Amino acid sequence: MAVLPIVRMGTPSLAERSVEVTEFACQALYDIIQDLKDSLVAYSGAGIAAPQVGINQRIVLFGFDHNPRYPQEKPVPFTVLINPVITVLTEETVDAWEGCLSLPGLRGKVPRYTKIHYSGFNEEGEKIDRIAEGFHARVVQHECDHLDGILYPQRIVDMRDFGFEDILWERLYGVPYQSKR
Ligand code: NI
User: Fold this and answer.
1) Residues 126, 143, 165, 170: which is the catalytic one?
2) What pLDDT sits at residue 179?
3) pLDDT for residue 118
């Protein structure tokens, strides 16, 4: 299939609410999922949301064993999640640095809930029902925000915690820039 170009911040469609998927187990949906998979892999994303490739439908993909953009994070199960619903299971939040394929080269520190329940459907229309914590919960919250037109800078509490990855390097990875593993 195809690696699609990423829609970047500032494009009006990224700020819109995406629409629910109404037809499952059909070729049109399979084609979208395949393009999203190809794009996720090609760009080394931790996750991707359909509006990031110009498709304003409520579809997200996420998951990896090891991700070069988030080298310190534990694996997240590869998941196709359609029409997701998140329920927060704690009021506790944790701050961590996030990036986004739609904001290349940038990172920001964002609070996210530490424990959530999420549900939705895969491309076959089968129900997905999970509890997630840590980075897994963070990725789901980040990707699902895209479906409501929200990008992570809108979640940053202190804008001094927003900037370019190479400049922030030492704060992000604890080692000076240039010693990228
Ligand atoms: Ni993103």
Assistant:
1) 143
2) 61
3) 98
Catalytic residue list contains 143: yes
Q: Is residue 149 part of a domain?
A: yes
Domain count, the chain: 1
Look up tokens 């809930």; give the residue: 113
**Tens digit of each residue's pLDDT (9 = 90 or more) over 100-137:** 999 999 999 999 999 999 999 999 999 999 999 999 99
Cα 177 to ligand 1 centroid, rounded to whole Å: 24
Domain annotation covers residue 135: yes
- CATH number, domain of 41, equals 3.90.45.10
Residue 7 in domain: no
User: How many Å lie between the centroid of ligand 1 and the Cα of residue 99?
Assistant: 7
Contacts of 151 (CB under 8 A, 6+ apart): 9, 14, 15, 100, 102, 103, 145
Q: Is 181 inside a domain boundary?
A: no
Tell me the Cα Rg of the chain.
Answer: 16
Question: Confidence band (pLDDT; 50, 70, 90) for 94?
Answer: very high
